[in-house]
Amino acid sequence: MAATVDAEYERSVALLERLVNQNSGTMNLPGVAKVGAMMTEQLRGLGFTVTWKPLPQTGRAGHVIAVHAGKGGTKRLLLIGHLDTVFEADSPFQRFVRHGEEASGPGAGDDKGGMVVMLAALRAMQAAGTLKTANIEIVLTGDEEDSGDPVAIARADLIAAGKRADVALDFEGLAVEDGRDMGSIARRSVNDWTLAVTGKSGHSSRIFSEAFGDGAANEAARILAAFRTQLPEPNLTFNTGLLAAGVTAAIDTGGSKATAQGKSNIIPAQAIASGDFRTLSEEQTQRVRTKMTAIVADHAPGTDATITFKSGYPAMAPTAGNQALLARLNGVNRDLGLAEMPALDPLKRGAGDISWVAADVDGLVGLGTASRGDHTPDEVVDLASIRRQAKRAAILMSRLSAERRSAGSRAAH
């Protein structure tokens, strides 16, 4: 398997170039579909039955779902990646440019590099004869960077695949710290919140009086300051992304623009703020929501305040099962003569699609390429990382897929 990965390295780089040069910003629906078609061709060549699942009802292009039926009674693997990038069709960052063992380009690492690693590993398994008996399902989403709505439909196929699987492997980027490859066994959730505050308006000379109170702007600031002092706990971050106050204040339906009208001598009647918070478990999510709701409910006299929440990505907690999978990967590293991969601090990794299946199946994240500058025009992929990541994945998948399903496994039930 290792020899196959090395022999086909330039083939992998050439495929990455073709994928990157096809724009697939999330909202470029035809572009996402074209990348899906490119991946479909590759997977069918490996013996997968591939379906393109269009999702017009969510406002997104769709997903690639590929199934390889192997030996009965053996572990079922779910491989996860995504077709889309953050760089839309009007972005000036459009082309793959190679610089020796590095290359720049939109999505070169996130996540087209990851999909190339996945294919390189599967080709290595095919060459070694281990793919033939492997039970593998692949879900390549077309909207990981900006999920379609309703999310229950957008992620239904991925969640269903997770319930069928015994192991989930996510081919997003490899984390590297101080030159050392890291293993990822956890990802934090994303939860959006919106704070709306109202107060009595009038001439600014009357502010803080019993008749007019603090005004909406000051009360919003007090609540946000209370978040900062009362919420902190391990593995939690929270952010205010938009803030506006005035006689009128509003955030647009897209959630990316705030508007306000007022004057320096008028007490603001309205204030609005929005942001997110990220947690490592559903229990932590509920605890933080309860704290925030209580802080907002204790608003100052003469004002009113409400907070609403919208769930985004769930958390992938660092379970014992995930830790055991990292130990298995480190067994592969030892056999390849590679250094052990410590577990990455989940504060250093954003949310991702594997979180949707984390409640149902043990998983690992970060089997894709190493890169830097992701989500910026400075995105650069370490092409050499294709080699070691594909070798790791091919051997790990070969070993896992040869094992019998446990009667006590979550998927077996």
UniProtKB/TrEMBL annotation:
Keywords: Hydrolase, Metal-binding, Zinc. Residues 185-302 form the Peptidase M20 dimerisation domain. Its cofactor is Zn(2+). InterPro entries: ArgE/DapE_CS (IPR001261), Bact_exopeptidase_dim_dom (IPR036264), Peptidase_M20 (IPR002933), Peptidase_M20_dimer (IPR011650), Peptidase_M20A (IPR050072). It comes from the Bacteria. Signal peptide: none annotated. The keyword Metal-binding applies. Pfam families: M20_dimer, Peptidase_M20. This is M20 family metallopeptidase. It comes from Sphingomonas insulae.
